[in-house]
Design goal:
Number of helices: 6
Bound molecules: glycinamide ribonucleotide
Strand order of the largest sheet: 3-2-1-4-5-6-7
Strand content: 25-35%
Largest sheet: 7 strands, mixed
Number of domains: 1
Structural class: alpha/beta
Order of helices and strands: EHEHEHEHEHEEHEE
Number of strands: 9
CATH superfamily: Formyl transferase, N-terminal domain
Distance between the termini: 20 Å
CATH architecture: 3-Layer(aba) Sandwich
Length: 202
């Protein structure tokens, strides 16, 4: 059983998509053991409460030192014996404190085709650049921003009349599919990573 911690900062639609797909049996041999939020008012926490999923909230605004904050996270996750951390709209860069503790066990979803359009407002960046296709990327997390080895990507078209909202919605639909696919493959033990190269057994 792959024990997952999902990290959120806001809406949490990727978290709920993962949870629903586990419930439906689309992701086998996995459970969301705990939800972690760095924001007390994260919408996704309401869903965790409603579904009786254990959650931890440590407001990051109370901590100046990012290493100290991540050490606290490591401590608070210990009782859950976590195998996989899924960052899902978790709007913080994680430090080596977390990365070293969970080597190759932290993944993230980003709303662009990496390595293009890292960081915030990736969909708006894509629109401004004038790309004809964008999408989402599930990747391992390393010390950089949106820079770890790529697990899988989904592509969507960009239309002339797109706004940040319409493009974000089209990408988000694919995010929910991509993240669940990636987690399912990891839970089945089919994902291996060597340097930047990730292979997925069929
Ligand atoms: C998603 O679009 C996710 O890809 C993005 O934040 C949104 C969170 O939505 N993450 C990043 O931009 C990270 N760089 P959600 O809270 O509904 O899952």
């Amino acid at each position: 059983m792959t024990k997952i911690a999902v990290f959120i900062s806001g809406r949490g639609s990727n978290f709920t998509a993962l949870y629903e797909n586990i419930k439906k049996g689309n992701i086998k041999n996995a459970e969301i053991s705990v939800v972690f939020s760095n924001k007390e008012d994260a919408k996704g926490l309401e869903y965790a409460k409603k579904e009786n999923i254990p959650y931890i909230c440590i407001p990051s605004k109370d901590y100046k030192n990012r290493q100290e904050y991540d050490r606290l996270i490591v401590q608070s996750l210990k009782p859950y014996n976590i195998d996989l951390i899924c960052l899902a709209g978790y709007m913080r860069i994680v430090t080596e404190e977390l990365i070293n503790e969970y080597e190759n066990k932290i993944i993230n979803i980003h709303p662009a085709l990496l390595p293009s359009f890292k960081g915030l407002h990736a969909q708006q960046q894509a629109l401004e650049y004038g790309v004809k296709f964008s999408g989402c990327t599930v990747h391992f997390v390393d010390g950089g921003m949106d820079s770890g080895a790529i697990i899988l990507q989904k592509v969507v078209p960009v239309y002339d009349n797109d706004t940040e909202e319409t493009l974000s919605a089209r990408i988000l639909e694919q995010e929910h599919i991509a993240y669940s696919e990636a987690v399912a493959k990891i839970a089945e033990g089919k994902v291996t990573v060597k340097g930047r190269k990730v292979s997925i057994k069929e």
